[in-house]
Design goal:
about 190 residues, mainly beta, Alpha-Beta Plaits, four-stranded antiparallel β-sheet, three-stranded mixed β-sheet, 2 helices, 7 strands, globular
């Protein structure tokens, strides 16, 4: 999967342009937008990469489109691999030489809450749940959320009529047992 960066023409709303692009190319997944620069980024599955830039640049709403050179993929680090950090010596400002590195593992918790708005959209003949930060915002197959935090309360607003007949269920494991209705802890 590659990330495509799209510069929206100044005379178009970034939300309308993003919605239009997603309606034409439903296989794209919205990643983020930079409103001050009129830039939107999308993830594109590998099978659709071949002519995407040409198609996007042909749209009136698009000023330019390019692939993000900063997206990398690779094999996971082997379990037997190790990292050694030498922390001897001292750190000084404005000198060439060594520095010190440390790392921590933290468990993030919250007592806060959040709402994710849910719609069902037909993309290339298949129904998918799509998510947005606001009820009238841009919906994407992948909610632009860095993750859920332990202790938080999350509400999935399914008030949109497109959800009728599409049960929204959760599982603690991929393709696992799902719960229906009510509340619960995963």
């Amino acid at each position: 999967m590659k990330k495509v960066i799209v510069r929206i023409n100044d005379n178009y709303s970034i939300d309308q342009a993003c919605a239009g692009i997603l309606s034409l190319y439903g296989y794209l997944s919205f990643v983020e937008s930079f409103r001050s620069f009129q830039i939107v980024t999308f993830d594109c599955p590998a099978i659709y990469e071949s002519n995407l830039l040409t198609k996007l640049k042909a749209l009136n709403v698009v000023k330019n489109a390019t692939w993000d050179a900063q997206v990398y993929s690779g094999d996971p680090m082997p379990e037997e691999a190790t990292l050694t950090v030498d922390t001897s010596g001292s750190a000084s400002l404005h000198t060439d030489g060594e520095t010190t590195a440390t790392s921590n593992t933290r468990t993030l918790t919250t007592s806060g809450s959040g709402t994710m708005y849910v719609k069902v959209q037909n993309i290339s003949g298949n129904d998918f749940f799509t998510f947005s930060q606001t009820s009238g915002g841009t919906y994407s197959r992948f909610y632009n959320q860095s993750g859920f935090m332990q202790g938080g309360t999350y509400t999935f607003d399914q008030s949109d009529s497109s959800n009728n007949g599409h049960p929204f269920r959760f599982s603690a494991t991929q393709d696992g047992t799902h719960t229906t209705g009510g509340t619960g802890n995963l």
